[in-house]
Design goal:
By secondary structure, this protein is of the alpha+beta class. The protein has 4 domains: 1-103, DnaJ domain (Helix Hairpins, Orthogonal Bundle); 134-192 and 228-295, HSP40/DNAj peptide-binding domain, CATH 2.60.260.20; 300-373, HSP40/DNAj peptide-binding domain (Sandwich); 380-469, no CATH class. The chain is built from 10 helices and 20 strands. It has helices spanning 4-8, 16-30, 40-54, 57-66, 121-124, 159-164, 314-319, 380-392, 409-420, 425-471, and strands spanning 106-110, 116-119, 135-140, 143-147, 151-157, 166-177, 193-194, 203-207, 213-217, 226-227, 242-253, 262-265, 280-283, 287-293, 300-302, 305-313, 321-326, 332-337, 346-349, 366-373. The strands form 7 sheets. It has a 4-stranded mixed β-sheet with strand order 1-2-9-8, with no helix packed on it. Strands 15-16-20-19 form a 4-stranded mixed β-sheet. Strands 3-4-13 form a 3-stranded mixed β-sheet, with no helix packed on it. α8 (380-392) packs antiparallel against α10 (425-471). Residues 445-454, 463-476 have a biased composition (Basic and acidic residues).
């Protein structure tokens, strides 16, 4: 016997799910109704035999331990020579003798004395895929049920629209029943003929090794039992029963919907490409609308919460203050900023985020992150103010253009004299403030004098050049 792992093309460590998936894939490919090439029948039997072993945990363990010898004549569950194997009236190993590998298949009883008959509808309905792109259901009350494919459309909305909800117009294309022939595929006044392949039964029987018969849907008429002869096809759909149509519909997008979510509209998808017949029941697939929310220039979103970055000056961060924060609804909220606010500080404003989907009245929060903006001094006064501020806070790391201010010795002596006479804390604070203001005044005037001195020097240099030019005609 052939190695079942090689036949199915799976690894020895493959899971039962992977083995089953590969089995269905190969069984569809080499099914006698689909593959008419020489050797397809033998290949199909090998696939069945291999799956029979690998789909059964007990048999798979025996094969992994003993190899093909476990299934030779006289070999049993304990291995070669143990007896009680998988033999029977059809030989040491009948690929259809144990049906554990075909769970979910519709097995019938004996037929014409040639063994059991089983139906492979589930094989071709695996994953609900029909023969022509539609999805095939089971047989019920003598009818074949087909459902069309689902259709997906994408629509784009703004964050504001996602927050408020919107009735959105959606345009899409689907397969629809042909209006000319009503899905029959026939010209007016024409009739269908009985399928010559199945004789009108809608299924075909194949005799397999071991006396088993395999029933499957007729590949010529797709199970309807009838065909459309040449010259009788509908000129609109060309005997397909369906045509492509462009459509539009209104979709109610709920408030709070998130990017990438899908909305389902039942029965708005494709009609199955199957011809109408007395023994066929048809239903359309569904339409799925995928909603994409465009990025916002101000807000970031995480589920029902919104995030906003507010830029504030260094002075506001240090002293505290009040700013206005925009909301998604277009209004503004006044927000108090505490003193000594640090970069990256987050303040939460409750119930100012996105609506919570499927929770009436509930909203997320708006989270504000502060970015502290440090200005670059552009004038001498601004530089002097910042240097004085650095002096006041004993900042020894700050760069200074002018030397740090030092107290006047006479001021220090006067302060010492006052202290000895019982000066109060308030007078000390007043003296300190005067010292800061004097420091600030010195810095500002120093910068102003520096600028004035530079201007005067430039003017004097120009006048000197002019005098020299008047004295020496060659310099003119």
């Amino acid at each position: 016997m052939k190695d079942p792992y090689t036949v199915l093309g799976v690894d020895r460590k493959a899971s039962a799910k992977d083995i089953k998936k590969k089995y269905y894939e190969l069984a569809k490919k080499y099914h006698p109704d689909v593959n008419k090439e020489d050797g397809a029948d033998k290949k199909f039997q090998d696939i069945q035999s291999s799956y029979e072993i690998l789909s059964d945990d007990s048999k798979r363990k025996q094969y992994d331990q003993f190899g093909a010898a476990a299934f030779e004549q006289g070999a049993g569950p304990g291995g070669p020579g143990q007896g009680g194997g998988f033999g029977g009236s059809d030989g040491p190993f009948n690929p259809f003798g144990n049906f554990s590998g075909f769970q979910g298949f519709n097995f019938g009883g004996a037929s014409s004395g040639q063994g059991q008959t089983f139906n492979f509808e589930d094989l071709f309905g695996f994953g609900d895929m029909g023969g022509n792109g539609g999805r095939r259901g089971g047989r019920g009350s003598g009818f074949m049920h087909y459902k069309g494919d689902d259709v997906e459309s994408v629509t784009h909305i703004t964050l504001e629209e996602a927050g408020a909800g919107k009735a959105q117009n959606i345009e899409y294309s689907t397969l629809d029943q042909c209006g000319t022939c009503k899905g029959s595929g026939l010209k007016a006044g024409k009739k269908k003929d009985t399928c010559p392949s199945c004789g009108g039964t809608g299924s075909t029987i194949h005799l397999m090794q071991g006396g088993f018969q395999m029933a499957s849907t007729c590949g010529v008429c797709e199970g309807t039992g009838v065909i459309i002869p040449r010259g009788s096809q509908c000129g609109t759909c060309h005997a397909k029963g369906v045509v492509k149509k462009d459509k539009s519909t209104i979709v109610d997008i709920p408030a709070g919907i998130e990017d990438g979510m899908r909305l389902k509209l039942s029965g708005e998808g494709d009609a199955p490409p199957v011809l109408n017949a007395s023994n066929v029941r048809i239903s359309k697939g569904d339409l799925y609308v995928r909603v994409r929310v465009k990025p916002h220039e101000l807000f970031k979103r995480e589920h029902s919460n919104l995030f906003y970055r507010a830029s504030i000056p260094m002075t506001t961060a240090a002293l505290g203050g009040k700013i206005e924060i925009p909301t998604l609804q277009g209004s503004k909220i006044k927000l108090n900023i505490p003193s000594a606010t640090q970069p990256g500080t987050v303040v939460t404003i409750n119930d100012q985020g996105m609506p919570v989907l499927n929770r009436k009245g509930a909203r997320g929060d708006l989270k504000v992150t502060f970015d502290v903006k440090t200005p670059r001094p552009e004038t001498a006064t601004q530089t002097a103010l910042l240097e004085a501020l650095a002096d006041a806070f004993n900042d020894t790391h700050a760069k200074r253009i002018t030397p740090s201010w030092k107290p006047d010795p006479s001021d220090a002596a006067a302060n010492a004299s006052k202290d000895s006479n019982g000066t109060t804390a308030d007078s000390k604070s007043s003296s300190s403030e005067k010292g800061f203001l004097k420091n600030l005044f010195n810095k500002i005037t120093h910068h102003d004098n520096g600028e004035s001195h530079t201007s005067k020097s430039n003017s004097a240099a120009e006048n000197s050049d002019k005098d020299e030019s008047d004295k020496d005609p060659k310099k003119k």
